[in-house]
Write a structure and sequence with these properties.
9-stranded mixed β-sheet; 7-stranded mixed β-sheet; 218 residues; Purple Acid Phosphatase, chain A, domain 2; 16 strands
Length: 218
């Protein structure tokens, strides 16, 4: 998969076609909104029953990125789990796959609105936010410059909804990495307020940069 490299407030970053973000200088792989355990949480709350495979599908995609890049640290930008009960009730196959991926590297769970803390039964450590140079990594965009998730941005491209990074002057929004996650269109008022112009970087077989703002639409 090809990525798109760019500079953001002193950091040289790559938006990967998978929806992950790569910081080569720090050997850090950043993902947002894995939402592991979503099918379990929906079943527990009486919602529609989904096939319980989303966790393995998500971690298989993440394993591909880890194999390609060999990161020293993996950072989850919040909502790594669909809620904390789902984290504690992960399918053993999912929990085992997660432990294998974390072996030999640092793993940081930034708290999100679904998972305000990291479960003690799984590898890694919890953080409210993380600073890379002048850039804050957090779950939901606030005062920039920052890198965040939360909104699950998507764009329409060639008649399809594609997960997308949104890159503006002070905010970089990551797409949701997890399977079974929905998306919010890039021109929704909540997203347009954060990134009124800049780039949408569509995910898929390759990362495709598209202009945003100034009357242009992808």
């Amino acid at each position: 998969m090809s990525g798109y490299a760019f500079d953001f407030h002193g950091l040289r970053l790559e938006a990967r076609a998978s929806g992950a973000l790569w910081w080569a200088e720090g050997a850090a792989l950043v993902v947002a909104d894995l939402h592991l355990g979503k099918s379990e949480r929906m079943a527990r709350r009486g919602g529609p029953l989904l096939p319980p495979y989303e966790g393995l599908a998500t971690l298989e995609r993440l394993a591909d990125e880890i194999a390609a890049l060999d990161p020293r640290v993996v950072i989850s930008l919040g909502d790594g789990f669909d809620d904390l009960a789902a984290a504690e009730a992960l399918d053993p196959l999912v929990a085992g796959a997660l432990r294998r991926l974390a072996r030999g590297r640092d793993w940081i769970w930034i708290g999100g609105n679904h998972d305000p803390g990291a479960p003690s039964s799984l590898p890694g450590r919890a953080a409210d936010s993380l600073l890379l140079g002048r850039v804050t990594l957090r779950h939901e965009a606030a005062e920039g410059p920052d890198v965040s998730g939360h909104f699950h941005p998507v764009i329409r491209l060639a008649g399809e909804r594609r997960r997308a990074f949104l890159l503006g002057g002070d905010h970089l929004l990551l797409p949701a990495f997890g399977a079974y996650t929905g998306g919010l269109l890039h021109d929704d008022p909540a997203l347009a307020a954060l990134v009124p112009q800049g780039l949408a970087i569509a995910c898929g077989a390759r990362a495709i940069p598209l202009p945003l703002g100034q009357g242009r639409r992808p």
